[in-house]
Amino acid sequence: MDFDSEFKAFEYDPNQPLDVEAWLKLDEMERILVVEDYHKQARVKLPDVHLHAVFHAAIENQIAEGLEDVIEALERLQFQGLDRHEAIHAIASVLLEQISDVMENPEPFIILGPPNYAYLQEVRKLTKRSWYRKYGKKRRRRG
User: Where along the chain do its domains lie?
Assistant: First the structure.
């Protein structure tokens, strides 16, 4: 695979604010690969580094594209004591849950309106406390 210079020069760190301009210059696969590379370099043990990176990239895309509810959730979670990386995990857990719910039973989501309506509704309610309550503090693994 021949990647351009933006990809080669991009260094992803989920604990640092995203360089939105540089991120958006990458194509989707490059974004996923830089996230994978971060986790491999950090020697984070994950059951599926690619799937993990896909969810990281999805949340970073929403931030880069200016999705207000996600940006506000990221800021709120950091204010409540999560680092940026943990906050991305918390938001990604909501996304994963919503995707799972839609896959199991899509009908209620069709009735509610736009595909992301239920997701954004849950993101607006997300707090450090609610994330810990649902997934337990052990979920804080650095990954």
Answer: 5-140
Contacts 24+ apart (CB under 8 A), 78-81: 80/127, 80/128, 80/129, 81/128
In this prediction the pTM is: 0.86
pLDDT at 5 over 50: no
Whether the pLDDT of residue 4 is over 80: the answer is no
The rounded distance, in Å, linking the Cα atoms of 122 and 118 is 6
SS (H, E, C) the chain: CCCCHHHHHCCCCCCCCCCHHHHHHCCHHHHHHHHHHHHHHCCCCCCCHHHHHHHHHHHHHHHHCCCHHHHHHHHHHHHCCCCHHHHHHHHHHHHHHHHHHHHHCCHHHHHHCCCCHHHHHHHHHCCHHHHHHHHCHHHHCCC
In whole angstroms, how far apart are CA 31 and each of 6, 11, 124? 11, 10, 25
What pLDDT sits at residue 105? 74
Q: What is the predicted pLDDT for the residue at 44?
A: 86
pLDDT digit string, tens, across residues 105-126: 766 656 666 768 889 999 999 9
